[in-house]
Design brief:
The chain is an alpha+beta fold. It is built from five helices and 13 strands.
Length: 230
């Protein structure tokens, strides 16, 4: 596996014909897809970035974060059902989830995170110029300056490899997700008759409902005497 990954990374570093780095006319949202190698695991992650909004998708669930007036909120999106659950900043803090914008927006610029430029050599990835950086622990990042994203991260046994980069319309991403039927996290417990919410609770995508105790099929269980809804 490692040998195969190494060959793929060398190909990324090979000089490519210069092309336009992103195409703003196609949309205002950057969409990057990565293949992630972690030991024997391999999976894909989609990253979206717009104005004061970012989103991450692994599998069928999208976590869309937004910032307004220094407050960070989360919209958990379920495209299969065209439904969402909204977590305002207060609920995120109560659940112990990170509400720091810098913790969810992606990757810091390498120079601001203890990395040094390896050489002056410039590669071209997805039409964007890229420079390679390394930190004191030997982790390496191939960084796309214009896009403000990594083309590759290699750290310990984990490798993130960019496989596609494009700009898409907000109407196909954040605006579309925001238009779907949404339930505030605080109101989930008052809507336990909703089959969608019961299923999301049963699958572990929602931390609690009215009582916080559900059977495998999402059927509410009798709560202990000292339990209460939040």
């Amino acid at each position: 596996m490692k040998k195969t990954i190494g060959i793929a990374l060398l190909l990324v570093l090979s000089p490519l014909a210069q092309a336009q780095c992103l195409q703003p006319a196609a949309g205002s949202v950057i969409h990057a897809r990565y293949d992630v190698y972690n030991g024997t695991q391999r999976y894909s992650v989609d990253f979206y970035r717009g104005d004061d909004r970012v989103a991450w998708q692994r599998g069928d669930v999208i976590s869309a974060w937004s910032q307004q007036d220094d407050q960070v909120s989360l919209l958990r999106v379920f495209p299969q059902y065209q439904r969402t659950i909204w977590y305002p900043a207060g609920d995120l803090r109560a659940l112990g989830k990170s509400s720091e914008w810098g913790a969810v927006t992606g990757w810091p610029v390498p120079q601001e995170n203890g990395y040094q430029r390896v050489s002056d050599q410039v590669a071209v990835v997805q039409g964007c110029e890229a420079g390679e950086f390394e930190n004191a622990e030997g982790a390496r990042v191939l960084w796309l300056e214009t896009a403000g994203l990594p083309a590759r991260i290699a750290e310990n046994d984990t490798v993130w490899q960019l496989v596609s980069l494009e700009q898409v319309a907000e109407s196909d991403t954040f605006a579309r997700w925001s238009a779907w039927q949404s339930t505030d996290f605080a109101d989930v417990g008052d809507n336990e008759a909703d089959p969608f919410l019961r299923r999301m609770i049963a699958l572990g995508f929602v931390e609690h409902g009215a009582s916080g105790f559900y059977q495998a099929d999402g059927t509410p269980m009798q709560a202990p005497a000292h339990s209460h809804a939040h």
